[in-house]
What we know:
This protein is mainly α. The protein has 24 helices and four strands. The longest helix has 21 residues. 43% of the residues are buried.
Amino acid sequence: MYPAQNFDHLYEQHVDNASFLWVLRCHVITQPHYNLVDIKELDERIDSHLDALMLSIDQAWKYCLLSLEFEEPGEVFTAAVIAIRSQNPQKIQQAVEVGLKNDDTFKGLVSALGWLPSAQAHPWIKKFIFSKDIQHKYLAIAVCSIRRENPEIFGMSLGELLQREDCISNVKLYARCLRLIGECRLHEFMPALNQTMKSNEAAVCFWANWSALLLGNTAAVENLKAFVMEVGPYQQKAIQLTFRVLPVEQGRVWIGKLLENNNQIRNVIKAVAVLGDPHVVNWLIQLMQQAHLARLSGEAFTTITGIDLEQYQLSKEGLDRIWQSNDPGDDLDDEDIEMDEDENLLWPDAKKVMLVWQECNKNFEVGKRYFMGDAERRSIKQESLMEKFELLGQRQRYGVSLELFLCGAVKLLPSIEVKSNE
């Protein structure tokens, strides 16, 4: 037998690799060129490193401890998974303490508890939800959220949490509880949503109305209008949900309001893609001739029509910008950041797209909703949506998840944050 020390560098490498791949995963789960198969392959790579670390807990933990000193989410994820799998309370306490340091490390900790199988994660979720520490309760509810689990399975009523003064006074915890109501389709807590739909706290107000709208309270859509119109942390989620339930005519009015602000043009493109009215397709094709909007417009075109740019050879080589600066520390401006969002999208050839659309537009009726070429999305069979869920890229899979829920799926599918935190 070789001394365990001879393999120190391998354990260090496994810790580094697992942590790096988790960070990579957090990036690609919102990328259009990754689908479910790609995500599963990446998950298997992460699992292989985690399994290797379990061959010698002591050796692995030595490097997990060293990595925790960086207070980075990927390192917290790896350490927390190994600690919980080891069933060692001291190791778990060390990982949890670092995980609760800040919002970033918290994501790694939540992800670890979402990653683990129920048999390993559930005992600790139960401990945290009954803990007197309000941070532990927030951790437990956040994990229930990404696992789409009702806290009642741990013996804690969500209704009890929503009535506790310490919960109500903690905005993060209270808002996450309201969010969980929608994610798990808990209709019995609709009164709690109704009571908080006009809250002065942005997080509470948003998630109360978001969940209420998911549960069928269409009046909540008006309360989300402010979140749609203003740039902020909830704007994208508001756009993704509201334009799926708004009547087409009302959706057009909202889009017109957004269009009054030149800085909102990208959000307008996203909104028209969600609304799905083919009335905008000619406008999208015009935008494909503008470099900073071309790729996003191409994605919106496909989302509405189902016409894949690669499959129909409607893309072209794009001259991606090369950012040059004498000072490597120069910050990118807003437009640079927007281009990063598009980096993995195809460059559409506007002329070719127009020719195809001229042939296909007779199959589309203005004023109807379309999603990936299917009309009247509410009538689409769940089997058809599930097939799309398996094949599409991550951004469109998120849309499919919402469509499935609105079509009657029991819970909101974790299309984006499977085994991870949003």
